[in-house]
Amino acid sequence: AARRVPMSASTSPNAPASLKGGIDGDEYTVTPEMIAAFERDGYVHIPGVLTEAELAEVEEPMMRFIKGEVLPEGKDLCDMSGAVDRTPDEYTVFNAMLPRRYLPSMQGNVFERRAASIARQLTRGKDMSIDYDQLLAKRPGSPDSIFAWHQDLAYWPPLEKDPATATCWLAIDDSTVANGCMRFLPGSNKESTLRKHAPVRISKGRMDEESSHALATTLSPADEASVRTVEIKCGDITVHDQRVVHGSGPNNSEGWRRAYVLAFRTKEMVEEERRLGFSHSHNDEFNWDAFHAWQEKSDVE
User: Fold this and answer.
1) Entry pTM
2) Within a 10 A sphere around the Cβ of 51, how many other Cβ atoms?
3) Based on C-alpha coordinates, what's the Rg of the chain?
4) Which is it for strands 182-185 and 228-230: parallel, antiparallel or unpaired?
5) Angle at which helices 32-41 and 110-122 pack, to 10 degrees?
6) pLDDT digits (tens, 9 = 90+) for 118-166
7) CA dihedral 192, 275, 286, 243 (to 10 degrees)
8) Rounded to an integer, what distance in angstroms lies between the CA atom of residue 267 and that of residue 250?
9) CA–CA distance, 1 with 78 (Å, rounded to integer)
């Protein structure tokens, strides 16, 4: 993938200092326009969060997972396309949950520090903590490397704590329509109830709730007409909240589409999740209990 040195997020060199976004040491200054977009649409594109040199701090450990040098336990290594009959070197949506747990040297890297400042600003100063992280890599030329439409909250327990979330999705490669960039349904974050989700099934006998950790919801024709595809450069990020409907298309290109996800939630929510034994590991017993709890809540409402 092509590399380039990220520039300031400001579009005008003469913009007031308070409106200029961009890297500031271990932090990143978010503009008022970015905050407004995040609150309005449920997501925002933030350019130039890491330089080319800084990107290596994430890319190098990521490749250790893809090459099989670091192996997450059990279901924390899986294929999020929904396939369950493949080996890791055949996964089309290579997914490694909680890489910071399995490779502790990743903790405290420059992206982690900068993303923390972004999460704090986008939530207008809330006390945000890292909830989980995730490596996602779409194999070249893989037409089934689709990440189904979903809302992140469908994967998580319906708790009463402040649910504010800022999920920072870092592009390791340029992310394009051709290689399966992120797609969002803007404004779906403002819907009063969570949409119905169901486990992804590819074909009969190949998928069931016990083997799948991919959920999907459906879009109406009106939804489809409102979808935005968000192409971003390596070193850029998108940040989305817990309710916006999103997904991604297949990688039909000749190169990998790699991303590192770092999700922040309020400190009180993270503490409550852990108290219940929910860590976002796919090995948690609580995982499918969380999904079913949302279905039961929806049925009651």
Assistant:
1) 0.89
2) 15
3) 18
4) antiparallel
5) 70
6) 999 999 999 999 999 999 999 999 999 999 999 999 989 889 899 999 9
7) 20
8) 35
9) 24
